């Protein structure tokens, strides 16, 4: 009789609640998901984070990867995934520690070596990053990996101020890609433009940024390429509009390296307060590439501000706090 008094909608809700309780009760006695299941879940959540899910997705992915590692401590894939999301959560030292531990068990894992190179660059250890990527290239000699490792080394060379070496690698990437009949990524073209910008060849840099924007379309990197084109050609009004549009989408700028791009844009636009805010956010997001920050000519207008010096000192402290002997991990 009681069920007859319920409406159709109420009956549906009641049935859904009963089913949910049944599933919960069954799960209390079920075996925990295997490591592979947690690994798949972590990867799914990591991709959701990259697609705009942000920190919430990354935290869930972190939990999934940790569960995978607890069930299978020697899983290089789980360690690599965990390190990736830790980087997105600004936990660069912890990511380095995870990779270091995993490399003890899997010293010849190319993906782990590449992840070491990635984290070391964020921590401000460009040479260690380069050596890690070179070893990753030796461990996996595929053309695809040769291109990816060169892309990352080229970026590290820019941070070292070795712009010609970075552009030499770009030419190698072009040759390798042509041999495979694959297109060079817009992001790779973007960094070639950045090398030319630092070399003082602004017009040429603008051309590369324009090409990168065409390849990337409306993606986040496409938006950055458009903004940097305006920076290179000194179209300040257009630069301000592009930077403002990117700032409205900061939830998608989940890592400190991309966040640092905003520092360049707002510095060039003359909005130093906003530039300093992004600088603090970049360091807080795990990018404490102090040697690069200390010499980056594109942020020179910020250097006389006390707030800049405080943020730079924080980056230096975090950079120097890395206790791992990176030389043993190359």
Q: What this model shows, in words?
A:
Helix 4 (92-105) runs antiparallel to helix 5. The protein has 16 helices and no strands. The relative contact order is 0.08. It has helices at residues 8-29, 35-71, 76-88, 92-105, 110-122, 126-139, 143-160, 163-180, 186-198, 202-216, 220-233, 236-247, 256-269, 272-284, 290-295, 306-320. By secondary structure, it is an all-alpha fold. It starts with 7 loop residues before the first helix and ends in a 10-residue tail after the last helix.
Concise overview:
By secondary structure, the protein is an all-alpha fold. Helix content is 76%, strand content 0%.
Question: What is the first-to-last residue Cα distance?
Answer: 73 Å
Poorly predicted regions: none
Compute the average pLDDT: 89
Structural Rg: 23 Å
Bin the helical content.
Answer: over 70%
Topology:
Blueprint: H1 8-29, H2 35-71, H3 76-88, H4 92-105, H5 110-122, H6 126-139, H7 143-160, H8 163-180, H9 186-198, H10 202-216, H11 220-233, H12 236-247, H13 256-269, H14 272-284, H15 290-295, H16 306-320
Task: Jot down its keywords.
330 residues, mainly alpha, 16 helices, 0% strand, globular
